[in-house]
From TrEMBL:
Claim: DNA-binding is one of the keywords in the record: yes
Species of origin: Candidatus Kaiserbacteria bacterium RIFCSPHIGHO2_01_FULL_48_10
Full protein name: Single-stranded DNA-binding protein
Lineage of origin: Bacteria, Candidatus Kaiseribacteriota
SUBUNIT field: Homotetramer.
Keywords, alphabetical: DNA-binding
GO biological process: DNA replication
NCBIfam families: ssb
Record region (Disordered): 105-153
Keyword Glycoprotein: no
PANTHER family cross-referenced by the UniProt entry: SINGLE-STRANDED DNA-BINDING PROTEIN
């Protein structure tokens, strides 16, 4: 069995670039930066930054283009893919992470909509109390806690 799986959590380095395929499907291209802190031989703290090229297709691309902006944190789950093309007789390569699912990261209190939503399924995960259903009514959660004795199994 072979495995091609990538998990990265970082900040967008630029706004997503939106395009459409000939089939009409949306494509979002963007990059995120991740950093790593380590100590060098002298024991001094060092920081290294890596930049990752990301591409998303379809509905995920539409959501990314709508909600993600430069500087926002995001968690990406995907796979590595290397593309190649030729320009003026020179072969070019680009390795990208193709998004399979993603989650908006904590926005540090900036209060942007959808900051903790997951796009892998609309019904997955918890929603904020302030989120509104399509019917225009606020979601009401019970105030009391559930005790272990209330669980039927």
């Amino acid at each position: 069995m072979y495995l091609n799986k990538v998990f990265v959590y970082g900040n967008l380095t630029r706004d997503p670039e939106m395009r459409a395929l000939p089939s009409g499907a949306q494509v979002a291209s963007f990059s995120i930066a991740t950093n790593r802190v380590y100590k060098n031989k002298e024991g001094e703290k060092q920081e290294a930054v890596e930049f990752h090229n990301i591409v998303a297709f379809g509905r995920q691309a539409e959501v990314i283009g709508q909600y993600l902006k430069k500087g926002r944190p995001v968690f990406i789950e995907g796979r590595l893919q290397t593309r190649s093309w030729e320009t003026d007789g020179k072969k070019n390569y680009r390795t990208e992470i193709v998004v399979e699912s993603f989650q908006f990261g904590a926005d540090g209190g900036r209060g942007s909509a959808g900051s903790s939503s997951s796009t892998s399924s609309a019904s997955k995960g918890k929603r904020d109390d302030s989120e509104v259903e399509s019917g225009g009514e606020e979601i009401k959660y019970p105030a009391e806690d559930i005790s272990p004795e209330d669980i039927p199994f």
